[in-house]
Amino acid sequence: MSSTTTVSDGIGIANLPNQRHKIVAKRGAHFTLMVVGESGLGKTTLVNTLFATELSPPKNYVRRHHKQLDKLTEVDIIKAELEEKQFKVKLTVIDTPGFGDYVNNRDSWTPIVDFIDDQHEAYMRQEQQPQRSEKIDLRVHACLYFIRPTGHTLKPLDIEIMKRLGTRVNLIPVVAKADTLTQNDLFLFKQRIRDVITAQGIRIYHPPVEPEDEAAVEHARMLAEAMPFSIIGSTEDVKTPDGRVVKGREYLWGVAEVENENHCDFRKLRSLLIRTHMLDLISTTEELHYENYRQQQMETRKFGEPKVKKVDNPKFKEEEEQLRRRFTEQVKAEEARFRQWEQHLIAERDRLNKDLEMAHSAIKQLESELDSLQTGYGRGSARR
């Protein structure tokens, strides 16, 4: 007796993606987005527009200049959980108020760069622990850098921080408030920015190209050509002349629509961040930026050794020594000035005391003369 068995559906390996899909759908995902740029460029509005919810209330810039004396770049963390079609994403938005808002912006990027490095460091330390089931992960998966729409080119501050961010995080430059420029000016402005990025060797995120998928190749090429993305942010509904209700900004000349690709690149940016490349941003952070940091630290530190503090860094020691010498010189100069004042006050006191003594002597002399006159007058009266 013989029988033949035909396996028409294979052994089941092709079902692994379905299994993976179930695991990911059950576990959900987490995504950390950082926004960097000067105040008033619409960072909060864009984030709220991207995720179609008010993650952060609009900023009040009335008292912004009251904090000018602080001259610090802050780091604000906003957490939210979004759900769409029963799939949950834990979203973390990192805002950086105070960056670029002062006359002297030297080292204003330090808190931002330190925060990114600290998150890599914290995750690496957690991986070295015996219990790793509940790791806290705030590694930044994408950083939107907002460029002011001047119509000229990148400022030195933009170049400095973009160089530092590009080696640490998936950097995505965007031109804020694109509706303030004409289409021709915007095209030239974006071209100048691309030229500066190339000339300065600034690393920005490029969507991966999959040669076997022509549609994906075309989409990646379109996204790459659109960088830096021109953005219009608005959470308000406005009515267009043809009767449609859209998200946008209303002007005397018409309506600037957020999701109209003839007006801005908002849809391209949303596709890059959420719809098509979110997982690639997460994996690139894990496999490239975090691994680069981990490799660099493992080559310079022993296992379990704490990170070198800035005070132990020779460069910071040199700067600290220079500050100490400058402070000492200023103290010496102030002491010398106070000694001069003291000597002047002592000399003035001695002069006034001498004048006072002379006045006392003159008064005593006058009193003695008056006494002698009174005595002589009394004797003359007695003779009469």
Number of strands: 9
Rounded mean pLDDT score: 84
**Tell me, what's the shape?**
elongated
Work out the strand percent: 5-15%
Instruction: Please identify the structural class as seen in this structure.
Output: alpha/beta
Count of runs of 4 or more consecutive helical residues: 9
The largest pleated sheet is described as: 6 strands, mixed
Low-confidence stretches: 1-6, 67-71
Strand arrangement, major sheet: 2-3-1-4-5-6
Oligomer: single chain
Radius of gyration in whole Å, from Cα?
A: 36 Å
- The ordered H/E elements are HEHEEHEHEHHEEEEHHH
Task: Please give the share of residues in helix.
Answer: 40-55%
For the record, give the distance between the C-alpha atoms at the N and C termini, rounded to a whole number: 181 Å
Question: Could you outline the blueprint of secondary structure elements for this entry?
Answer:
Blueprint: H1 16-27, E1 29-36, H2 43-50, E2 76-84, E3 87-95, H3 110-127, E4 142-147, H4 156-166, E5 171-175, H5 183-200, H6 214-226, E6 229-230, E7 237-239, E8 245-251, E9 254-257, H7 266-275, H8 278-300, H9 314-383
Parallel strand pairs: 1-3, 1-4, 4-5, 5-6
Antiparallel strand pairs: 2-3, 7-8, 8-9
